[in-house]
Amino acid sequence: MYEICVQSLRPVKTVAIKSPIPTPGPNQVCIKVIATSSNPKDWQVPAIFPERCANEGDDIAGVVHAVGAEVQEFRLGDRVAGFHRMLEPHGSYAEYAIEPEVSTFHLPPNISFEAGSTIPLTAMTAAIALFQHLMLPLPWQTLHESMPKYGALLIYGAGSAVGAWALKLAKLVKENKSLGVGPIIAVAGTSSLELVESFKAADYIVDYKQGTVVADVRKILEKEGKELRHAFDAISHSDTKTWENVFPCLAKKGTVWMNMTDPSEESVVWPSNMVVSRVYVSGAYGEHDPDGYRNREDAILDGEFSYCMYRYIARQLKQGRVTPHPYVVLEKGLESVAKGLQLLYDGKVHGKKLVYRVADTPHLEEYHV
After folding, report:
1. What range(s) does the Enoyl reductase (ER) domain occupy (predicted)?
2. What is the torsional sign of CA 310, 154, 344, 113?
3. Which of 76, 82, 218, 244 is deepest in the core (most CB within 10 A)?
């Protein structure tokens, strides 16, 4: 089969190799990949490990080709999407890929493979941040009137793929009036405002390009008579220092979860009265992260959560209550992965996911073993 490995960075270079079709393990599924999409981590990993030459793709949409001996939920030919286990072989930049059963879900008939490929990593990153860390109530929960309500939620970077999913999931929770979630405050750039507005999920949208985020958020909270105790920073890169707009908005005992930055790695004095930590989506597989970002007990819980949440998201997609992120399909399929990763590295992708159709890749047949 045809497979793409990311060979180097600055500039991004990839190499096409001929590989055998992988065989799934007992609790794995082998997918014939129809479409896949890129994530920033696909260039960030080679930046950290320059000697590594590997298939970095993780977002998969396609049909089931083979299942492991202990897989019960999926059958050959099923339309599925899923999240490949990061940093392991058999990623999505190939004709066939492997993913754990726990992070595989049926793709509803109203969702195309291209749209489906934009969902797995970004949606689960947002879900783990909101529900596992910020303790946002699950959409189907019911709270008694006497129980404390959740209150305000700030989502910074709401126009990004991860931030957009956080906003859409938070909307589903807010629609359950018993949970007392709100207001939902979305922060995004000028170019993303129309996209964020289209979700009809945020009570307030703040344009960070205006340079008045802290003042604007404080005015909103004062108007609503609320304190802000929960925030998710979906950007949080050391180059942007978005936390400088988040911390001043929080109450004295607030909680911030950050998507890209590990607070322990930044030369920043974090507020001692706040819980500040990074979101690691690697727990979604239900197994201990080999890099130690989540302990075994937390990873098991994240795995149980992701199994349920992926199926909940699939149901909401089928019902039209949530929609995938906007995307653009690059020409020439997997041959364009290098182009896509270079665009991401250069910061030229905004408000869209980059998608590749495997069938559009030139000369596939030359790589068939």
Report:
1. 7-355
2. positive
3. 82
pTM of the predicted model, to two decimals?
A: 0.93
Which pair of tokens denotes residue 284?
């979604």
Contact 170, 199 (CB under 8 A): no
Handedness of CA 147, 205, 313, 29 (dihedral sign): negative
How far apart (Å, rounded) are the C-alpha atoms in residues 362 and 240?
38
What domains, with CATH codes, occur in the chain? 2-119+306-367 (3.90.180.10), 123-279 (3.40.50.720)
**The CA-based dihedral angle spanning residues 336, 322, 303, 128, taken in that order and rounded to the nearest 10 degrees:** 90
Residues 6+ apart with CB under 8 A from 189: 159, 207, 208, 209, 350
Helix (H) or strand (E) holding 255: strand 255-258
Residues 6+ apart with CB under 8 A from 157: 163, 187, 188, 233, 234, 235, 236, 242, 259
DSSP three-state, residue 301: helix
Q: Mind giving me the DSSP string for 168-187? A: HHHHHHHTSGGG-EEEEEEE
3-state secondary structure of 98: strand
- The token duo for 301 is 């819980």
Q: How far apart are CA 81 and CA 12, in angstroms?
A: 27
Confidence band (pLDDT; 50, 70, 90) for 75?
very high
What DSSP assignment string belongs to 184-216? EEEEE-GGGHHHHHHTT--SEEEEGGGS-HHHH
Q: How wide is the angle at C-alpha 349 spanned by C-alphas 172 and 343, nearest 5°?
A: 140
pLDDT higher for 165 or 260? 165
Q: Which two tokens stand for residue 223?
A: 């108007």
Q: Torsion angle of alpha carbons 125, 204, 249, 143, nearest 10°?
A: -70
What pLDDT is recorded for position 290?
A: 54
Report the candidate in 18, 26, 167, 40 with the shortest Cα–Cα distance to residue 96.
18
